[in-house]
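2 proteins. here.
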Amino acid sequence: MNKILLEVKNLNVVLDNERIIENLSFQAVEGEILTILGPNGAGKSVLLRTLLGFLPYEGSIVWNQKLKVGYLPQGLNQLKVKDLPLTVWDFFVLKNPIPKKDEIIQFLNLVGLEKEILYKVAGHLSGGQFQRMLVAWVLISHPHILFFDEPTTGIDIGGGETIYSLLHTISKKENLTLFLVTHDLNIVYKYSNNVLCLNRKGHSCLGSPKEILSPENLEQLFGTEIKFYEHH
């Protein structure tokens, strides 16, 4: 049985006098893929940033081990760097220590990018290419815990499947723990061990995808009828 990696009790987060997360309690175990699910504004990204120590909170957050963490926040895209003359290579050499060229190429290949992209200006990549580069950039540090906030933003459905498959394979091989925010219910069902659901009305639940992704739970979570079809 895997060890409990994280214990959260009675977590409350208030930003700009607005309560974003209220009395949230849950556990995460080593080696699992935990998906955080909920409507826009439910506090999913806030929860990740709080767990990472970026935001003030009340309650208890206990990490039972000191481990290396990789984090890919939501909203990073090539538009923010389009005017900077940074190549893909430049992004990777910002790492400390600087990875070897062969290793960079290996991780680019893992996310479906060819080595020829290494010296292209990052701001000139397509949205999907840029997002794949960022995923490789996070993975190359060999973290024990991965925080991914909408990791397939800007990637087509086929590309998204490739990256989620990759994350799933790596997490199992290396016994990584993955905290994932996504709106894709089919991806949640296929790859998650557990689902933590949040909404601004104080409703939260934790369980396996089969338990959580029921029409009743989804309607309570999102406030409207959600049609979900399991893909085989």
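next one coming up
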Amino acid sequence: MDNTVIYLLPIGSDRFALYAEAHDDGADASGFWRAQTRRLYGRWRDAVREARNEQKGDATWLGRARDWTVRRTADAMAEQRALWTLRRAVAPLLVYPADLSEAQAAGVRDRLLARARAHHARWLVVDALTLAASGVLVIVPGPNVIAYYFAFRVAGHFLSWRGARRALQATAWRLRDEPALAELRRLAALPRDARAPRLDAIAAALKLPRLADFFDRTAAPAR
């Protein structure tokens, strides 16, 4: 049985996003590679935590550029994780808000996937060209941060495009409604501080510890 779970989140009155919970990379590996992967994943989480630390006050432009790149990369990974997960899914489960019918949920899902497939195909070409152009910076001393950033974007868009294409063409979906997700529609209209307690309770009930962060980044208003 495919254990892939994708959540259809209402992030506004008529806006939705596909969401998959992050899991520690390398959880299914063993021995040396499992230890190394977990170590690298832990270092990445530490880097993200440091980059999001507003009290750090890094005054150098290089430090600010590094932190911006880490934050942007982490946000992109969270927003594209559902599509990346779908690259290998055979029969994923779509958990959708209970105030939608199964047909409505499937329609929203397919529209999001079709839009994502076109979006990531377009930006894959743009970022690949930009990455090639950034090669001229190899003569500048130090790491080519710009090239690293666009290399990630190229890889991310490619994986997302593949995931969206597979999910539209070769995936046998299962669907299940979830009442707690329907409540997110109302919460999206509230300021962040006002919705935080209930959002945290929903995330805990669904065992999705990273849901609140994702919702706060994508739902409006974000104040």
